[in-house]
Amino acid sequence: MTDDAAVLPPGQQESEPAPERGRLRGFDRAIIEAIVQGSPAVTTAVAIVAALLIGALIIAFSDATVLHAWGSFFAAPGAAISATWQSAAAAYSALFEGAILNPHTVAAALHGGSVGAIFYPLSETASQATPLILTGLAVALAFRAGLFNIGAASQWIGGAIVVTYLGFAISLPPVIHVIVCLLGGFVGGAVMGWLVGDLKARTGAHEVIVTIMLNYVMYNLLSYLLGTPSALQQPHQANLTSPNIAADAQLPHVGGPPPQVGVGFLIALAAAVGMWWLVARSTVGFEFRTVGANPSAARTAGMSVQRTWVLAMLLAGGLAGLSAAVTIQGSFYSLNFQSYGTYGIDGITVALLGRAKPLGVVLAALLFSALETGATTMEAATQVPVDIAEVIEGLIVLFVAAPLLIRAVFRMRAAQRGGMAAVAKGWNG
Amino acid sequence: MGLRPATGTVRIDGRDVTGASPRDRLRAGIAFIPEDRQEDGIVADFSVADNLVLDTFDRPPLAAGIAMNRSAIRDRAASLVAEFDVRTSSIDTAVGTLSGGNQQKVILAREVGRRVRLLIASQPTRGLDVGSIEFVHRRIVAERDAGVAVIIVSSELDEIYALSDRIAVMYEGKITGFRPPSVPVTELGLLMAGAQAEAAAAAGAGTGGAEAAGVADTATDTAGTAADTAAAATDIAANAADTADTAEESR
Amino acid sequence: MTALVATIRPPIAINRRLLAAGTLTLFGLVDVLIFGLFAHHGDAGFALSLTGAKVVVPTIRLPGGPLAYALGGASILIGIARATVVDSPGPRRLGIGLVLLFFVLSLLAWSDTGSWAHGIPVNLVTLLQNTLAGSIPLILGALAGCMGERAGVINIAIEGQLLLGAFTAAIVASTVGVLWLGLIGGSLAGGLVGLVLASFAIRFLVDQIVLGVVINLLVSGLTGFLYDRLMVPNANAYNNASTFGPIKIPGLGDIPIIGPIFFDSTIFLYLTYAAIIVVQVGLFSTRWGLRVRAVGEHPTAADTVGIRVLGIRYRNLVLGGMLAGIGGAYLTLGSVGTFSKDMSSGLGYIALAAMIFGRWTPLGATAAALLFGFTPALGSFLGSITVPISPFILAMAPYVATIIAVAGLVGRVRAPAADGKPYLRA
């Protein structure tokens, strides 16, 4: 992902400094400067706040009670405002309690209740984040090589099929079974990824189209397999679900009774570290990044662009397949449309927010899973539909483009480096 | 690399690299300075250091297996920057922010900073300031002096006259003639316009070691003919490399 | 990275001509080996009229096995011709079309001669009617894509435009009670999404593929949220739209076979015809279209000649969005009337594939969209006569076909040269 400071908004004249906007005074300007030229962390924080704000407005103003209160705004303005506040606050506090911390459990613990229960929401969030971290890494890794992996879903299914089959159809000694299933998931996903990369390398077929199509193909294949007893369907019942995998193929948890940290979460973190090392420190990663940044230069320097594409998609697919493995072996123990979830498409937004860097992906996945975990609690408590989480996530990612937006709004000059780059290119034609 | 021979073979030190991949050609000792440095020569977002090792990053001592040795890379980058006088605030600045001249120096440093047998430079001083042009010219001649076969593809007649030991003129993908640098401009111009002339045989060794041949580019659409130029250039390269070998053998 | 064309020309390791010929021959072999060898006894019936039509065309009955052999043989011949003789685009496409047609006919013949069919003939008219109907959102979506991409902006947000169009049409028609206003509302909603896409892509320079994905996510979340919040508790008030009834064009609608398919449908189909013609003629035969295409190929040159690059991009995206919005409105007001969550179910992405398949031309995109619309229609027909093919396997077919086509038959496609690259005034 290129640094967005290097680009000018259209219409901006490079030659003169923009006239001072009267309403921006010292402190305001300092904040804007911090946002515009600040680190990605600052930008992201602002984006999150802005998105939550808009989310709050959506929640409040679709609430019948609030609308009613605003109907008689002139009679009781205070009531309208407080109704709005209450609607949003109730929703968000339920969200927080479901995802991070419920103060009641703290109070209960002080009175002799279980201390572990305090960490329950966090462990839920972490466990929900696990598959998301891996699919996020799957998309991010492909991004680094300049590829758009919209097909994490198809790779996930590929891995899931292998994992489930190995999980219930064969028997192996305990630890071996776990490892074999994990590897099987990786391989299943890697094959699907390899398919995309190979097609692109050999025939030039664009990976956006191929991956979108494969998503549908695999989705239908999954439905078929889950509905056919001889394939993956649990026998003697009509639902589209697979048999449970053997107990010794399941991933253990660390720590006693809930809260627990699944081993899957640790695997996901390990994968993130692995990806960091691969991309930043290895020759393979250097090739990925070069091909992603400038394929022509990579070619001239002797790198095989085709080979890089294939390898990148293969590894990315493997990560997505691993995501399926930890989901099935760690949480659901069987394959059906509940365990399938939306990890594929969510992986894309996670990768975008995390700017395709492993640490960013982990944090973004934790954030998004906090939103989603909390949203279910929120819906139970305040009847606010869970879809709001999706909206907030989308807004966050959209607002991460904020620096340009804010810069355009306030007609600020481009950041120093960006300005110089523009001038340098101009002179050399 | 843009080198697609239409006919003939390319041999470096007796090794046939006609159909080899770019990587193999680089390993065989060919250095290539591309015409479009922004597009083919550098990765603008990468640091100067990374650009300097774009083609050598995976060989020892810069890498051990698949692990890159970052300190070795930095050391190498620092020494190349010093040797080639690349003006940059640090080896970590993005190469896209450097001036055209310094970018070209980075490319030059990368290509000839290692031992090569053949240097092909396409439009090496396009868009550069006078100081950088000087530097590039000096360095090219230094390579020639060190025994490297050099082919320059250029549309700057001044440059060709200044640097060449031998000039080959191309018109519509074919070589119309070989001339020494004492050739009058009018004759060169006629050849450039396609006037038929005897293609001088590429016989006769130059003054010990390898020779440099400058090829004048005729068409206005330089991008299109660059590939053709390079194609014909491989013929010359073959000749030059052979000549270099012969010259060395005869010492 | 954002251009939908490979900027690197990969070495074509596989000879494209042989690949195409091989694919065609493969279809022929399937005809012969599967539908021929495993043919059932008896005749397949192909009905060509609806019951109660003014002019009833007699049902054609053909023996299943021999038909499959004949069609398969013809396909193989076409495959051989492709490998050896045929090279210009026209006959090439004709060949592909014929092979696909023969494949479908063989499949239908095989299905209809099975015992599960109970002698009920395949009603080609109904099949094609359903195809056309199902293709409406795809065609309109693909047209929206063409409008934007020809001007140089990638529109992955077609899915969002369809969904928001469907939602808005349903809610407006339910609250206001007038179907036409719902249709207009849906169209405007699509246009709004187009405006958002345009703003963020053109003004704020967000990567266009990323932007499309995010917009789709937002629309999905927003409509889902409002569905739960407003429509579910108050279905009568907010989600109670009726549908447009079919309008038969007098005269044309009574032509045997063709009439009921093309001239007896809802207003949406007629709007689609108009859209196809307008966009095709507009893009390729008017000055406006020339300007648009110039912007998409070489915006700098266009700007130099005084063409307003950014203005054209904005306008095309909004207009395209309005077309897609109509397609979305069809999903509710032209079909079931009520909105349900995520009811666009990926049609936007298929429309995108149709656009690429059709090489960014309205006519090509329409042909591709019809192909995509055909498969679900085929699937429901086969399901109605309980052919023992899993509906899921059948549903996979158009997607697999697209992959094969993009890799084998179509290969490297050429988008407008400036597609996906934001235009910055130097």
How would you write the strand order of the largest sheet of chain B? 3-6-7-10-8-9
What is the number of helical segments of chain B per DSSP (H or I, 4+ residues)?
Answer: 9
Mean pLDDT of chain A: 78
Write down the Rg of chain A.
24 Å
Q: Specify the structural class of chain A.
A: mainly alpha
What are the segments of chain B in which pLDDT stays under 50 over at least 5 consecutive residues?
Answer: 198-235, 241-251
Strand order of the main beta sheet of chain A, please? 1-2
Low-confidence stretches of chain A: 1-24, 410-429
- The assigned CATH architecture of chain B is 3-Layer(aba) Sandwich
In angstroms, what separates the terminal alpha carbons of chain A?
A: 24 Å
Strand residue percentage of chain A: under 5%
Gyration radius of chain B, rounded = 18 Å
Instruction: Work out the count of structural domains of chain B.
Output: 1
Q: How many strands, which pairing sense, and closed or not: the largest β-sheet of chain A?
A: 2 strands, antiparallel
Give a quick set of tags describing it:
A: two-stranded antiparallel ribbon, 19 helices, globular, disordered N terminus, disordered C terminus, C: 426 residues, mainly alpha, 3-stranded mixed sheet, two-stranded antiparallel ribbon, 16 helices, 68% helix
Briefly, what is this?
The complex is a heterotrimer of chains A (429), B (251) and C (426). Chain B is an alpha/beta fold and 251 residues long.
Description:
The complex is a heterotrimer of chains A (429), B (251) and C (426). By secondary structure, chain A is an all-alpha fold. Chain A folds into two domains: 4-113 and 404-428, no CATH class; 127-356, no CATH class. Chain A is built from 19 helices and two strands. Chain A has helices at residues 26-37, 40-61, 64-71, 77-99, 103-110, 120-144, 152-169, 174-203, 207-226, 263-281, 283-293, 295-300, 305-332, 337-340, 343-353, 358-382, 387-399, 402-410, 416-428, and strands spanning 253-254, 261-262. In chain A, helix 6 crosses helix 15, helix 7 (152-169) crosses helix 15 (343-353) and helix 10 (263-281) runs antiparallel to helix 16 (358-382). Chain A is globular and about 70 Å long. The model of chain A is unreliable at 1-24 and 410-429 (pLDDT under 50). Chain B is of the alpha/beta class and 251 residues long. In chain B, 41% of the residues lie in helices and 16% in strands. In chain B, the strands form three sheets. Chain B has a six-stranded mixed sheet, sandwiched between helices. In chain B, helix 5 runs parallel beside helix 6. Chain B starts with 10 loop residues before the first strand and ends with a helix. With 426 residues, chain C is mainly α. Chain C has two domains: 16-124, no CATH class; 136-388, no CATH class. Chain C is built from 16 helices and five strands. A three-stranded mixed sheet of chain C has the order 2-1-3. Chain C has a two-stranded antiparallel ribbon with strand order 4-5. In chain C, helix 2 runs antiparallel to helix 3 (89-113). Chain C is globular and about 65 Å long.
